[in-house]
Every structure is written in C-alpha cells, then in structure tokens.
Amino acid sequence: MRLRDSSSVASWLTACVISLAAAGCSSAPGKPGPEPEVPRPEQVLDFATLYGHNCSACHGENGKNGAAISLDNPVYLAIAGASNIERVTAAGVPGTAMPPFVKAAGGTLTQQQITILAQGMETTWGSPTALAGQSPPAYASSTPGNAEQGAKVFATFCVRCHGTNGSGATAGTGIVTGSLVDPSYLALITDQGLRSFILAGQTEQGAHDWRSYLTGPGARPMTDQEITDTVAWLASQRVASPGQVYKQHP
C-alpha cells in the first residue's frame, strides 16, 4: 500500500513539475507575446481603411485636396450616384491614372469591398439636400457635343473665372485659375472628367456647380446640352502630342 502511495505521489509531483515548467517557458522574460491577428486583405471591410489604402493617394486623405477629383463633394456624389462610382472603381478609366480595382480586372479588391467604398463615400460625404430639390443634368452625356456652340457657351458661363478662351483669369479679377486649354492638362483629363468638374465643381477651391456660374439678373443653371457643348469645345483644344519639343544638340 505504501509503495502504491509513493508511486502515486511521485507521478503527481512529476506532473506538477512539467506543468510549472511549461507555464514558465510560455511567460519567460523577454519572450515575445502572441502576434496580433492580421486579417487577410479580402477580409478588410472597413470603409476608412479601404479608402486610406486604395483611394487617398489620388483623391486626398479626406476625399479632397488630391490630384484627382474631390470625392468629399455632396453635389458630385448626388449626380454620379453610388452605381457609377462603383462601376468606375471596379473597371477603372482607360488611358488615365485610374486603374481597375476589382480582382476580376486585375485589381486587388473584391466586389464587396468596392461596394463598401462606393456606399461609404455616400454615407460619409454625401448629403440628401445637396441638389436642393433640383434635377441635375445627367452624369454622362447621351448626345454629341457641338464645339462651335460650346465656345459661345463658355464665353457666357465660364469666362469670368477662366478667362478668354479658357487660358486663365486675367490680372485684376481677384480670381486665380489655371488654363483649361493647356495641352498637358487636357491630355490628363477625360471628357467625363471635364463634365464632372463643370457639373459639381471643386469644393475645396470654392468652385461653383452647374447652377451658379451666372450671377445677377438673368442668372440660370447650365443645361445638359450646354455642358455637353462646352466639353466638346474644351476637348477640341487637345493636341496629338502635348509637351514641349526639345531641340537636339549635335
């Protein structure tokens, strides 16, 4: 009986020593703790994180002050709508710096993540009162524009801020704008980009939208066709090979 009891005590002591040793190893001084669990890229479903990693470099940290069009613009968001933003984000814009983001087109995001981005922009920066009950022109034109007529429209609605022939405001106006007909600028922006700027402006620059380019008596919004014609005129100023031709030295 004593032998049996001694054997049991020895086994118990051995188990205790092993248990204490294991506990001591797991909490040994200097041993790194467990690594934080990092979600896989396709598991990230937070709007702010997705926007910061994929959009902020071009559209600005908070949806504005970036190289590309401001997304923190309730008027733009109301006119474009989540469906168009989702489509452009997924497919990109050929010939521009806007790449396709959906995995099916070679991007890095799932369709669910792109939907979260588009809906998150509306929730974060949109406003149900942005259009003040007015029906805006269409986001994209459905008719061809008339460049000759567009020059006249530009002279009526745009010359006050953008100067004669779109080359920038003249001295003494108190308005500082760059040239809209600069070949390098026109080479970088699409017709839809020009239309979007005319429709919604750039909020951080205090630009107006399609409703407020005219002031004073007789002021009225631009019509859909007037915007289409203005874009056609601006597009007609593009050149085949923008940029300065440098002389070759012998």
Describe this structure in words.
This protein is mostly helical. It contains ten helices and no strands. Helix 4 runs antiparallel to helix 5 and helix 9 crosses helix 10. It starts with a helix and ends in a 15-residue tail after the last helix.
Keyword list:
elongated, 2 domains, mainly alpha, Cytochrome Bc1 Complex, Chain D, domain 2, 250 residues, single chain, 0% strand
Summarize the SSE layout with pairings:
Elements: H1 2-26, H2 47-54, H3 56-59, H4 74-91, H5 111-125, H6 147-157, H7 159-162, H8 183-188, H9 191-200, H10 224-235
Described by strand count, sense and barrel closure, the largest sheet is: none
The CA-CA distance between the termini, in Å, is 110 Å
Provide the helix percentage. Answer: 40-55%
Report the CATH architecture of the largest domain: Orthogonal Bundle
CATH topology description of the largest domain: Cytochrome Bc1 Complex, Chain D, domain 2
Number of helices: 10
What is the mean predicted local confidence, pLDDT? 85
Please identify the structural class as seen in this structure: mainly alpha
Shape by Cα distribution:
elongated
**What kind of assembly state do the chains in view correspond to?**
single chain
Query: What is the CATH superfamily classification of the largest domain?
Result: Cytochrome c-like domain
Brief characterization of the structure:
This protein is mainly α. Helices cover 45% and strands 0% of the residues.
